[in-house]
Structure formats: C-alpha cells, structure tokens
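User: Run a structure prediction on this.
Assistant: Running it now.
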Amino acid sequence: MAGRYWMVVGTFLLALLLYIDRICISVAKEPIVQDLNLSDEQMGWVLSVFALGYALFQTPAGILADRLGPRRVLTTVVTFWSLFTALTGAAWNFTSMLVVRLLFGAGEAGAFPGISRAVFSWIPLQERGLVTGINFSGSRLGAAFALPFVAWLILTLGWRMSFVVLGAVGVVWAVVWYLVFRDDPTEHAGLSVTEQDFIRANRQQVDPAVAKEPLRAGSLIGSKNMWLAMGQYFCSNFTFFFCLTWLFPHLKEKYALETLEAGFYASAPLVLGALGNWFGGWWIDRIYRQGNWTLSRRLPAAVGFGLAAIGLVVSVYMQTPLTAIIFLSIAIFGADMTLSPSWSFAVDIGRQHAGAVSGTMNMAGNIGAFITALAFPYMQSWTGSEVPFFFVGAGLNVVAIFLWLFMKPEKQLEEY
C-alpha cells in the first residue's frame, strides 16, 4: 500500500474517534438527566454548547494548522479534547456540564481543519474527493458504532466511567500520530523517493512567492466563494447534527424502544452516511478525471441535498421506527454526499490556507448544528409536534442546491 494511504488510515481513525467521543453524550442523555436533574431544554443547551465551542474555534484552529502544521496541531487538540471527554464524567450540575462541553467542543474544532491541511500536502488532486469521503465516513462509522457500543458501555461501567475510558483512547491516538506523522511527505523517511515525486507532481500547486504569505482577513470576508461555502454547509449540518443529538432519544421516546434497540435503529442513518461519503467522493474524482472541475464538486452536492430534503419530508409520515429510519437514512446518505464536495471545495480555493478556509466553512456549519440542537426541543415544545423541524431542515437543503450553482472551485479566494 502506498505510504500516503497510511496517513489516510490515521486521519480516518481520528474521525472515528472524534464522533465516538461526540455522540456519547446523546446516548448517555437519560442517566445524565436523572443524575443532574436536567430538563429537556437544559439538555438541549448541553448538546448545543458543544457546537458553539466547536464553531467559534474553527478558524483559529485552521490558521494554527496552516502555520504550525497538522502534526503538532492535531496532537495538541486531540490531547486537549480527550481530557475534557474524561472530565465530562466529573460534571456535578448543569453549569459544570456546560463548561466542560464548551471546552470539549473548542478542542475538537482543530480536527477537520488539521486533516484538510494534511490532505493538501499529502494527497494528489485527482484523489482528493475519495480521500475526503473516506475521512468523513470515519466520523459516521464512529457515531454508528458508538450508539450500541456506548449504550453497552454505559450499562456496564456507568456513564461517568465511560467518558474516562474514551478520553484515554484519545491520548493514545495523539501519541502515535506525533511519533509517526510528518507535515510534508518529503520529510517522511518511510516514504519512497518515487512516491514523494509523484505527490509533489500531482498535488495542487502553489506559487512559491506567495506560499508563505499569511492569510488576510479581507480575503476570507470578501470572498463570494467563502460565503457560499459557509451557507451551504450551514444547511448540511442542520440536517446531520439531529442524528448526533436528538435522533436516539427521539426514537426511544416516540416508539417506546429499549436502549439497545434504539441504539441500533439510530445507527442505521450513520452507516448510510458513511456510504454517502464514499459514493460522493468516488463520484467527485470520476467527474474530475473526465475534465470538469466545477461539475465534479457541484453535481454530487446538488444531488445529495435533493435526497436529504426528500428523506426528511417523507420520514415524518412513517408510522413505524423501521420505515422512519429508512427515509432518515436516505436523508443522511444525501446530506453526507455533500461533504466530499464541500471539503474538497474548501481545499481547492484555500490551497496553502486550506486549514483556515475549511475551518471557517465548518464554523458556519456548526452554527447550524448549534441551532439544530436547540431548535428540535423548543419547536417540539411550541408546536406539540416534531413535523415543523423536519420541514425546516428540508427547506434549508433546497436552499443549499441553489447556493452551489454559484460556487466556483477553480477560483482562489482573491479572485471570486
């Protein structure tokens, strides 16, 4: 196996860990609510404050990844968030839980911007879509795996000790990454000269005269491409974050399911999300090799958002957990088809500033996630039904299709 693919194995495992740690709080909702005496609205704030911390630190974390390199940055942020994963088990009331989850979110903020910067340096342009899809599929498989596994872990060890165990796993990953990874393939002794030359010749090229120039804030704020990327990613995360936060407790309550049964049902959309990432990434690279850079990003994204809108709307009319999950799985398959084009697009226009650009896009997406975690319980409380929430999500997916019609991956920040 080519040496660069071992880097992809590492980033895949990181995405896997990222979402196992993230979704654990949703699975542990019931014992946490009982132990800390929280209402559903308070639990909504616990779930959403993570997304707030995650969103606020996306751009700074991306800038650090660009300047210091993904080796040091990913080692640091994984260690930091693993500490607060473990400390989640020490929370004693609503306020302490809010503080811990806010800092946990801030720590996780550096993960995907750091991965994007590593992809820019290590992965040839014609492989970018599939590699991005593989990395994001790790996050979905991690979440899917976590639902039944963490449910079992909580039943076995209790919710507090479960968070400690997961925190320890993160520290192990950080140590291995620092020892094995290098910021540029030319610095890695285990990589053949032939592969180093192949990567250099086929990765996205940057003018050496501007390669070390710092990213100006005006380039981000003034870029139409940047605002369009942020808008469509907001819409995507509004759909997906529901699966990470409220899907499990929603299924369990609506259909009177046991904990493990609800975990298996809730994991299905996440498995389909992984497949959506693979399919979207494969489709991107296939179209790109046929010579159409813009269409390779635009078409998979538009089809994915269309499937997401249809799946959300139809799911609300299903009467059994199985049929509801089938259409929610279609929705998440579609939503996750949009991730490879989104993150490939961010690296396309960001180039040597891929960390900062992808982080800024992800910041907007996680503002959508922050709103989702609050919107579901509050809209259900105001209207007495979950139906309005799903229609709002479907409408945002339709808006995202129109945003993609104006996005131009071949244009760098300063040009459009």
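The radius of gyration is 20 Å.
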